[in-house]
Specification:
The protein is α/β, with parallel strands linked by helices. The protein folds into four domains: 197 residues, Serine Threonine Protein Phosphatase 5, Tetratricopeptide repeat; 77 residues, Alpha-Beta Plaits (2-Layer Sandwich), CATH 3.30.70; 111 residues, Phosphotransferase system, mannose-type IIA component (Rossmann fold, 3-Layer(aba) Sandwich); 104 residues, Hypothetical Protein Tm841, Chain: A,domain 3. 45% of the residues lie in helices and 18% in strands. It is built from 21 helices and 16 strands. It has a six-stranded mixed β-sheet, sandwiched between helices. It has a four-stranded antiparallel β-sheet with strand order 2-3-1-4. Helix 17 links the parallel strand 7 and strand 8.
Length: 551
Amino acid sequence: MKVLDASSFREMVLNGFRDIKSKYQHINDLNVFPVPDGDTGTNITSTISGGVKAMEREENENHLGKLALACSAGMLLSARGNSGVIVSQFFQGLAEGLENKETATVRDFAFALSCATRKAYDAVVHPVEGTILTVAREGSDYVAENIDKIKDFDALFRVLLKQMEVSLEHTPDLLDVLKEAGVIDSGGAGLVAIIEGMGKAVRGEEVDDSVEWNGPTNSLSSTGEVPFDENSELEYGYCAEFILQLLNSKQGPEKFDLKAMISFLEGIGDSIVALRQKNIVKVHVHTKTPFKAMEYAQQYGEFVTWKMENMSIQHNEVLLKEMPIEAPEKKAIALIAVAPSVEIADLFTKLGVDVTIPGGQTMNPSAEDFIKAFETVNADAIIVFPNNSNIILTAEQAGKLYDKARVEVAKTKSAVECYSALSMLNTYDNTVEENLAIVEESIRNLICAEVSKAVRDSVNNGINVKENDFIGIANHEVRSSDPSMLECIRKLFESIEDFKDRSVLTVFYGTGITEEDKEGLRSMVASMNSWMDLMEIEGNQTIYPFIFAIE
């Protein structure tokens, strides 16, 4: 193939999606820390899935540049995690390089690859070599340097893939943390998978599509299991939300009475919110008989959307805070925070957060999730708390895509950093800049520490970690490892030089922590620092049974 058209590009991206979809779990496992929170493969697959869906909506588009732009727009919204954002920016740059091209030659595509790499680097304030960025740059540079020898797209992708694979294998030579952990860069591995699938499409090889992809779920379940089985009872009923289009072909707009509908819904449920905007009706109701609400509504029209969730499950895991149907009163500054559990979300809400978004390790929200949250607040400015280092870029990307309010991202990397900062903010009297300065100062004065369980043998920060050992992490460095959870915590605290000079220790207890565990922690803290105040919070987060804020 010497000329690339829209149809071929469509198949290339789809094949790239199939390839990474088949390898996403392996890519997740390429985790520097040996804890069960690897999600790079999931994030990149979700990101490119958004591009595939966007192209499906443009099924009649035959202009290469326009299709590439539509694809990249879908990825920008679907981007999750740092690697997902970088991949979305890579494809945005690729689209910009192809923007005016109805078809493209190998030289055109080589130029677009260079644009893609520059765009990816621009997405990161402090680019780090030995990552997906290096793999993209060395691959695109090699193509550009050898373009005179490349006669068709088959040759281009073979050359590109080979160089990217070489670059990927060398990532541990550029990043000591990769070499010590014995892994290659996971983001680079994801990009290589996409390029490999795209190259196969050029040769007419279709990657196996047997792996189903429904995307990640931002579940807040404590156990990861659905808390509803054959022995359960429907205690809470269903949360039903729908938008109804009133139709003249039915009883229609003239006969529909909103007050009569509300009266009917009160007879079968509660927590009712019902609004009519011209011939559109929006309804929220909690009921054990949602079919009755459906039957009543269908007398007057048909559903534009219908969503129903079992609140016996929802009560335990799903809703953080229901998005308001009506816009709230205008305010100067609104706060939006990502929370890994219902309990932490409720805590953030009590501390002044307007909207909470489900998220954290293994369930990173997308840029679109942030934008939907932005839409629910009515404010001149929005401060976002990502509360995870792998969510910051996504929040920043969402802020750039949103133009109805000023969006600023506080660089919080954990729920405890957010908790500490929220207690000191003043969104009524302080400016955005003053509040952001407060967050920065709070983070500077805080040591964030976590405990998790190792899923494999590893070496990190010079510490030998054995599978199933507990590991202690402080300020994003492994500091301790031990088969005993409490002994691991003791070593973790001992690794912090000024622990005995600190005055407050806040702990978020995760799932599965017993009263015996708590008492052991209390005794340990008292023996190590007798005048330290211990603040205990039931966070109910997964993966990390203990998260500490040391102040």
